[in-house]
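Morning run. Coffee first, then this:
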Amino acid sequence: MKVIYNNIIPFRGFTAMNLFGVIFARKECEPLGERTLNHEAIHTAQMKEMLYVGFYLWYLIEWFVKLFIYGKKAYRNISFEREVYTYDAYEGCLTIRKPYKWIQLIINK
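And here it is:
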């Protein structure tokens, strides 16, 4: 996974952003921690499952829907994020997560 450290992407207040499998991280966060790298690696796997563009489209749609339901807590309730936060603390997280697990989390709490 390629990590590009810079002062532009992501905006201040965020550590890293995954764009099509390339991680953009704030320079002041160098080096990224293992949990953040795991987090982004799981997102990359999700992107591959959704053929990248589908991931971003679904992410935005689900965020808008969850924004009306959860308000400021919309981000943490997006199915992709719920899956990531379940597994990102574990070494070898990509081997223990089941492909398409996020689909079960769209509606299920």
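The longest strand covers residues 2-6. Good start to the day.
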